[in-house]
């Protein structure tokens, strides 16, 4: 048995899209601000998620664990990346 498609309420749909846009806009603004002083590869647990070397990586961790990020967030991290 197939369900009949319900008609789309355009006003409700538009309001939903506007709400999602507002939510993602705030998230994007926060990311833009934080990215100016915090390495984008440092996760919430101060672990490095980069797939390349960085002088701020403490590599003394058990196998299969992410390296610990020792960056102090007060530096221009871009110069730390190994090329």
**What's the end-to-end separation, in Å?**
59 Å
Query: What is the overall pLDDT average?
Result: 86
List low-confidence stretches. none
Rg computed from alpha carbons, rounded to a whole number of angstroms = 21 Å
Shape: elongated
β-strand amount? under 5%
| SSE pattern | HEE
Biggest beta sheet attributes: 2 strands, antiparallel
As laid out across the biggest beta sheet, the strand order is 1-2
User: What percentage of residues falls in helices of 4 or more residues?
Assistant: 25-40%
Overall strand count: 2
Q: Count of helices?
A: 1
Task: Return the structural class.
Answer: mainly alpha
What does this structure look like?
- The structure is a single chain.
- By secondary structure, the chain is mostly helical.
- It has a domain of 37 residues.
- A two-stranded antiparallel sheet has the order 1-2.
- It is elongated and about 60 Å long.
- The mean pLDDT is 86.
